[in-house]
Amino acid sequence: MEIDLPLRRALQDRLGAERFDLWFGKEIRFEVDAGRVVVVTPSIFLQEWLRRNFRQLLAETAAAVLARPVDIEIRVAAHPSAGSPCTDAGAKCSPLALPHEPPAERGDSPPHLAPRHSPPAGGTATAASVPVVLPVVAVAAAPRLAPRSADGRATTARRFATFDSFVVGNSNRLAWTSARMAGEGRANFSPLLIYGPSGSGKTHLLEAIWSHARSGPERTSAVFLTAEQFTSYFVDAVRKSGLPNFRRKYRGVQLLLIDDLQFFSGKRATLVELLYTINTLTEEGRQVVLSADRPPSELGELGRELVNRLQGGMVCGVEAPDYDVRLGALRRLAIAGGLELTAEVESFVAREIPADGRILAGAVNRLTVAQLTRGRPLSLAAAQESLADLIRATARTVRLQDIDTAICH
Q1: pTM, 2 dp
Q2: Average model confidence (pLDDT) across the chain
Q3: Phi-psi region of 18 (alpha: psi -120 to 50; beta: other; left: phi over 0)
Q4: Cβ-based neighbours of 64, under 8 Å, separated by 6 or more
Q5: Is 315 helix (H, G, I), strand (E, B) or coil?
Q6: Which has fewest Cβ within 10 Å: 31, 224, 225, 389?
């Protein structure tokens, strides 16, 4: 009886499409052999993981599909595909990728992180002895430098922001100073965590650190990526390319920058890998820079050991841009876009647009198009008309408590 397709559909209904694709992708086959349902996996790692975590679910689902009780056998394919986690040439891979447990990307509770020192990931090669070409991945804004890989070749990634295009004020001065020190290699603290609300300039500072480090005469080897990308590459390494290569890439650099740390919440195996990576880099005197939307004290879902590691470095808060910072950013954006604004219009936009750099950039885009349409610099009335719906949509709601507080003050 052909069971592969109906069993796949039944498992996907029970697990959801995302979780099903993660553990029962194209590498897994379902067969019937001597009355048993055989699950054929490409690697020992997946065999052990499915046996420990999905055996009962597989038995129940197969029994429902076949309308009778059935035994489950999980075996490794006679000729494992190239997608096996242990495919690193010349390396001896452990059957299990992690020291204590296989990855469980959707755990419901914070991880119990493993000890500080992870065992070797296979073979005798070390991160320092293996030359690696490091691709750079980034999301950025404002005037930028063309990013390059570790060997100095230009890449097709987006261009990075710089310190020159960052507007410094009371709301971000400490973070800017710490970022400059990290980019210049003068910092003796690692990891550096920059936290703050959306649109406050965290990503800009991380990109500026990368730009400064890579533009110097020594061209520091550096990687910038988001937490989502780190997670995707880690899962892909576990399932296909192999963890030794992944670890050499991210533990062999002088500077590692990861944006949106809060994305790791609940991803137990990725958190263990991240902790080992941070430990390796910091203990060897190399720099790690991270960003998050809140301070470490509010990131308990990342696990106590990782939070303690963050608090043992340098933590800098970035507040929402105040009026002076918004005004400075507005002027820089206007100059970059060839937009002419009167002092009256500048004051109006900086005062009315909320404290979010991205929304401010969107307002400048609107004003630029409005000026091109009219063929002359905008008056205050024209600017108000162009931004009326944006201001209404982002205006802060005045609550009764706000009125009460204002009157008491």
Answers
A1: 0.57
A2: 76
A3: alpha
A4: 10
A5: strand
A6: 389
